[in-house]
Amino acid sequence: MNRAPLRFFFDYVSPYSYLAWTQLPALAERHGRTVELVPVLFAGVLNALGTMGPAEVPSKRFYIYKHTRRIAHELGVPFVMPEAHPFNPLPALRMTVAVRDAEARLRLASALFSAMWAGGGGLMEPERLVSVVSSVGLDASVLLAEARTPEVKDQVRRNTEELLALGGFGVPTLVAEGELFFGVDSLGHLERFLRGEDPLTREELERLRHLPIGASRI
């Protein structure tokens, strides 16, 4: 049986990434899987696709803040909007990439998500980021230096390019056996897929992949 890791493409700027993360470790455990963290820059995805982010559309921005709060209530997880949003997630993304040990990276990601979205004080100030890193037993000064290296910066860029190459268009995106599941609301679909209960047949997938476009507004 295939027990490949569930690959989690995410950005700390995304409240939906946080909400998915609150559920993902338990989901993975139920199916005997591990989670591979793949930090990406959501803004880089948007730039590559030439699309606007949800927080760049004023009416949508207000809606998603209400929507994510309601989802958090439904899931029973803490949720506190940061002082400002969007914010620059690059320092946190690079520090996550800089952690080589998989278990330590998972601990750091959990702590960073909590700091940003669960009332943990946010990540806007550099000292907050240092505090979060230290709280999970990592050397913040070493990690900060690593995060500034070209290798780490390039890895975030490569992660972002990989998501695009896989057909991804946003965060969070989960990849299992090459199949993409986008958004916190797709976790149930992912779980059914892992149980072998996906309603989509190979033939239907191929038909949908090549479905003709009947009209265009351009």
Quick check: average pLDDT?
A: 95
Radius of gyration over alpha carbons? Answer: 18 Å
In whole angstroms, how far apart are the ends? 46 Å
Question: Could you state the order of secondary-structure elements as H and E?
Answer: EHEHHHHHHHEEHH
Tags for this model:
single chain; 218 residues; alpha+beta; 10 helices; 4 strands
What would you note in describing this structure?
By secondary structure, this protein is of the alpha+beta class. The protein has ten helices and four strands. The protein has helices at residues 15-30, 42-49, 58-75, 90-98, 102-117, 126-135, 140-147, 150-165, 187-194, 202-209; strands at residues 6-10, 35-39, 173-176, 179-182. The protein has a four-stranded mixed β-sheet, with helices on both faces. Helix 4 packs across helix 8. The longest helix has 18 residues, at 58-75. The mean pLDDT is 95.
Please summarize what this structure is.
This protein has 218 residues and is of the alpha+beta class.
How are the SSEs placed, and which strands pair?
Layout: E1 6-10, H1 15-30, E2 35-39, H2 42-49, H3 58-75, H4 90-98, H5 102-117, H6 126-135, H7 140-147, H8 150-165, E3 173-176, E4 179-182, H9 187-194, H10 202-209
Parallel strand pairs: 1-2
Antiparallel strand pairs: 1-3, 3-4
